[in-house]
């Protein structure tokens, strides 16, 4: 029917993958800025569905990235400048992820928890209490994205 219509061009809508990639890249840029880290920082991604973030980090020049599942054995314990917790599936996983993050960041690293993807009983409200139990303290909180930045509690950092 439209084969012979002059000036008719069929355009495809933008790929959802391209849109998702752009959103993920923007999220990575924001995380690195919030944590005051360069693109070359060592990062440990902890949680589920970490592949898009991993690819965005690699694309931004971050070549030292590890992906970990809460509660799964991790034979290496390489230090990280940033432990980024995404998509945890409940309170127990959040506790495990915070302990794993605390073990990896040393005294100067940062932990970022994506509160929007946290499937915990009390949501973002439980992150601070659970972080304190893991030896971490809140550095900043982004209300727009429900993202929490954590660091080693000062008294624990001096003792280490």
Task: Provide an overview of this structure.
The protein has 160 residues and is α/β, with parallel strands linked by helices. Helices cover 36% and strands 20% of the residues. The chain has 5 helices and 6 strands. It has a 6-stranded mixed beta sheet, with helices on both faces. Helix 3 links the parallel strand 3 and strand 4. Helix 1 packs across helix 2 and helix 3 packs across helix 4. The longest helix has 19 residues. The protein is globular and about 35 Å long. The relative contact order is 0.14. About 4% of the residues have low confidence.
Write a concise keyword list for the protein shown above.
6 strands; alpha/beta; 20% strand; single chain; 5 helices; 160 residues; 6-stranded mixed β-sheet; globular
**What oligomeric state best describes the polypeptide chains here?**
single chain
How large a portion of the residues is in β-strands, by DSSP E? Answer: 15-25%
Sheet with the most strands: spatial strand order? 2-1-3-4-6-5
Q: Tell me how many strands there are.
A: 6
Order of helices and strands: HEHEEHEHEEH
Largest sheet: 6 strands, mixed
Mean pLDDT: 80
Helix content: 25-40%
How is this fold's topology laid out?
Layout: H1 16-34, E1 43-47, H2 51-59, E2 65-68, E3 82-86, H3 91-105, E4 110-114, H4 125-133, E5 136-142, E6 147-152, H5 154-159
Parallel strand pairs: 1-2, 1-3, 3-4
Antiparallel strand pairs: 4-6, 5-6
Helix pairs in contact: 1-2, 3-4
């Amino acid at each position: 029917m439209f084969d012979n219509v002059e000036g008719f061009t069929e355009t495809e809508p933008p790929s959802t993958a391209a849109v998702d990639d752009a959103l993920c890249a923007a999220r990575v840029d924001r995380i690195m800025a919030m944590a005051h880290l360069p693109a070359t920082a060592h990062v440990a991604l902890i949680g589920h569905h970490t592949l898009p973030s991993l690819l965005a980090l690699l694309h931004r020049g971050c070549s030292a990235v590890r992906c970990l599942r809460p509660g799964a054995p991790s034979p290496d314990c390489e230090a990280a400048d940033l432990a980024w917790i995404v998509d945890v599936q409940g309170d127990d996983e959040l506790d495990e992820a915070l302990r794993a993050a605390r073990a990896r960041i040393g005294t100067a690293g940062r932990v970022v928890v994506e509160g929007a993807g946290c499937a915990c009983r009390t949501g973002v409200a439980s992150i601070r209490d659970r972080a304190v139990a893991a030896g971490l303290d809140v550095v900043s909180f982004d209300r727009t994205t429900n993202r929490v930045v954590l660091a080693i509690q000062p008294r624990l950092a001096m003792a280490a």
